[in-house]
Amino acid sequence: MTQQHYRWNGGFPKIGIRPTIDGRRKGVRESLEDQTMNMAKGVAKLLSENLRYPDGSPVECVIADSTIGGVAESAAAASKFARENVGVSITVTPCWCYGTETMDMDASVPKAVWGFNGTERPGAVYLAAVLSAYAQKGLPAFGIYGNDVQDAGSTEVPEDVKGKLLGFARAGLAVALMKGKSYLSMGSVSMGIAGSIVSDSFFQEYLGLRTEYIDMSEFVRRIEENIYDPVEYEKALAWVKVNCIEGPDNNPERLQTSREKKDQDWETVVKMTIIARDLMIGNPRLAELDFGEEAQGHNAIVSGFQGQRQWTDHFPNGDFMETILNSSFDWNGVRAPYMVATENDSLNGAVMLFGNLLTNTAQIFADVRTYWSADSVERVTGHKLTGAAENGILHLINSGSATMDGTGEQTKNGKPAMKPFWEISEEEAQKCLNETSWRPASVEYFRGGGYSSDFLTRGGMPLTMSRLNLVKGIGPVLQIAEGYSVELPADVHDTLDKRTDSTWPTTWFAPILTGKGSFTSVYNVMDTWGANHGSISFGHIGADLITLASMLRIPVSMHNVSEDQVFRPRVWGLFGTDNAESADYRACSNFGPLYK
């Protein structure tokens, strides 16, 4: 059994397609069989051709064995879907059907209905009727209805319908991929950061995740007892010596450590990286080395490492470990990134996971550290910000644990990008490594030493920053800010960067302003951000995050996504239409967590 097989233990959930039909026989049903089943096949083809699982393989769809005209056929489809590990449900129909008899009743599976916009049969009537039934029964479902009338017998999926089907399916698969996995807490609370108070009720009730816990002393045990693959360790250390450029030591001379200590730190942080990965997903090689229990791992799809301060006051910090795992490549080549939250900020880990599952790309973990107004930048550097940055920028910078994909050295259509691992070339991975240096850690922060990654994100990338916060009396709340990475002149960056810790990676971020609410100014974005951390994903994925949040019953407190892109269950509209944000809060409160 390979390590990657361990990683995707249990396989991937599938998308179930339910072709529903008018059950009246002797003419009506028979005339609709081909069109209805062809709709299902068309949707399955669309999804399989456009969506990928985290390992890069095409998403699999399962179509009911027959069209569904009544409750018996609905039950048969449900049985098949249970056998086939279906985690997302899409019902399609060109006609009137018997609503409560043909609907999907699985409460924990995200569901959508596409009602064909045609004049020959009342597909829109069924869509409205069954969505009403879903609302009445407390099973929120997404309604999909094309803008333009189609001709009878058409097998085409209109572009607007495609967009909604793909958006729903991406978010639905994210829900299904999380279910039954784990958040692995490596250590406990870091420096009083609330996000690292791991809430098992949140992960269980909202995301369907277990919470697993280990003490950081487990790293010491595995290092001292050699509970790791020694062959891989030697390979990894040799790769690091060639590919990880050690930068200058910025510590005061009196605090700088010896070459011997620095070399020991390299050995330790490489071992920490292998051990953290093995803790998350297991490693069959450990069983061969007579460590059968440790070989199993914790089935973790996301994790966090406390580090500060109980670990970092004595041992090398976790920055190298987190950076390598969060990147899409290591000594074993290009591969899917692991989601590891710095300082065990589990809430930032959760949104890192959201972004990763929606895009299959690495995520940047960062402090939302400083708001630089255009006036402040000009006063300090003499440079006038222009373009996307003209209204000010946010300095996103953490202690050196951000993914190396965040350098922007990968390209798509000739522009800087962060890509799914199967699109990343070895040359692009090497460019990311070449643009990253590893600075000996600031000993005043990290008494145990270690290394922090240092890079500067290329400008011009569309990015989405998000954050989950827990609010007593409400529960989880999501924040979203779409924007762009910004490239400053080198001297301007250096001047601003040296006012903080210049050994850490920087992303200059300009959120898109809408003139409303939190997005009237860049200052307001900073001022209303709910915590010290944020997760940054490539692309403008705010709409998908909103769709995902509604599936999980998590309200969105701020976003700058245009209203025509927002896609939530149809019943959300019954909670009021004048203030969509307020309706979102009421709907999420009314239906409660997905798994409660």
From TrEMBL:
Name of the top EC class for this enzyme: isomerase
Gene3D superfamilies named in the record: 3.40.50.1070, L-fucose Isomerase, Chain A, domain 2 (3.40.275.10), L-fucose/L-arabinose isomerase, C-terminal (3.20.14.10)
Reaction catalysed by this enzyme: L-fucose = L-fuculose
Taxonomy, superkingdom: Bacteria
Binding residue positions for Mn(2+): E343, D367, H533
Cofactor: Mn(2+)
Family label: Belongs to the L-fucose isomerase family.
Protein name: L-fucose isomerase
Designated gene of the protein: fucI
